[in-house]
Amino acid sequence: MSNCCKYDCKSDVMQKEKNITNIIIFVLAGMFFIIPFFVQNEIIKIFFYGISVVLIGNEIIFEGLKNIFKLNFEEKTLMTIAVAAAFILGEYPEAFLVLFLFKLGEMLEDHAKDKSKKNIEGIASLKANNVNIEKNKTVIVKNCKDVQVGEKILIKPGEMIPLDCKIISGSTEINASAITGESKKIPKNEGDSVLSGSINLTGAIHAKVEKDLAHSFVSEVVDLVEEATENKGKSEEFITKFSKIYTPTIVVLAIMFVSITSISGILEVKEAIRRSLIFLVASCPCSLVISVPLAFFACVGTSAKKGMLIKGTKHIESLSKANIVAFDKTGTLTTGKMEIDNIEAFGKYKEKEILKIAASMEKLSMHPIASSFVNKVENQELYNVTEFKEIAGHGVYGKIDNKEILMGNSKLLKKYGIECKENEKIYITSAGKIIGTISLREEVLKESINAVNEINLRKIMLTGDSSTQAKKIAKKYKIKEVYSNLLPSQKQEKIKELKENNNIVICIGDGINDAPVLAEASFSISMGAGSEIAKVTSDAILINNKINVIPKIIELSKKTMTIVKTNIAFSIGVKLLVLGLGAAGIAPIWLAVLADTGTTFLTVLNSSRLMR
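Request: output the structure for the sequence above.
Response:
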């Protein structure tokens, strides 16, 4: 596995060793803690209590002492002060219980985090180490990191596809369930591209590498997941900042409580310290510091497992509050694979010649319709196109034999001063004259129709396509609001308009021309098979390239925010209750410990529900 991956086998082994060590410490500490209950000598009692406390809490106390000298007041600092105070007061069992329950809470936290990482580890483990390189009619094994684009590789049946590549000979079936969530076998033949992380099932295939390891699909997925877990949302950032201010404030309040109540004679010094001790222990913000980030982390991991990579927990809040969803049409609601319906040729040109010119132009384009033309003229020698450029929302421009060629919609022709009728056809011009037109048809993604219907938000379609074509597709998806004939800048303006009055807008797209819209949206989703710029710009990527997971992820984000708010309210509520009882002298120290570790345990369990 690549060194850049955080979730490797070593971490599993280390975690198991840590768990075994913790169990041994718990058993030994428990044994030493029980001994004082069977002896009469006070010194021996203190001795065994001291050993039990050091065993169970040496790391916590060591960190706490360091933090005190650094004036860094966090939860371990609170625990250390509480333990010291308990020993001074002679409350030795309470000192042990504080550390025991805190340590137990840490173990539960580690277990919950490890469980949530399992959803991500499956993706991270898809990175292969080695690859079979074909060179001079021999096969050598090479590290994936050292393989260059263009090299020929051999992938045997049963092997993982190590890098993104194109099959140059052979045929097979692959299982891409680990990266797309689709369990069915997918046939692959010569000329087909295959993604890294898939499993080659049936036949040996020879392929040419299309992307190096750093830019291959699985590497990008792993990097995105790791980035996502480090990208904090507003709630997470609030809790982090809150704990930094909250903890030293609690220490100051505890000192003030002891000083005021003892000096004024309201309480005896020992009783004042005992109540402040309860105050310190009950106030520990562990349940908030642990459960809130865990909920977000679990949401990111579960979303990745379902087929959507969210690039950071900060985006989950936006997704949960969304009330409008805007769809691009081509490649999102349709297959993106257009078929030629009809070709018209004018003057001396024939239909075959028009198709050849169209394919020559479109072979250089990244637009989804390009393959429709190129696939129609397989094995034909195409024209050499110079000065090619793509004009977003209009079409393409280039030169063949020094003649200016335009291929696109009526807006393109008008841009260059050529008269034409406004319709759905694609115009082709040479030297300023229309030489032919092409009509296309496209198919909807049938499995996505139900998914769109399940999204209980205001739904709209934004497309650069004609009104007639857009309405046909929108009708099949039962989308009532349709905005057609839009340039990328007009789509962006529409998103700005939709965001007014505090609306939260989700946008889904896949093409180069969707990048400005995706950047403008409150939460943007790009298709896994979409353009690189769309994937870079978006807040989430559909790795299985299917929108049927979107309703589930929206519900997951809402559930996550509900759990976060519940955890915050529950933690603060319990602590305030115990603080009040402690200040009144009603609450014993074990109840303060329970208010800390008990709430931590319950809120962690609550957050862990997102992993199911």
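Residues 61 and 512 are 56 Å apart (CA to CA).
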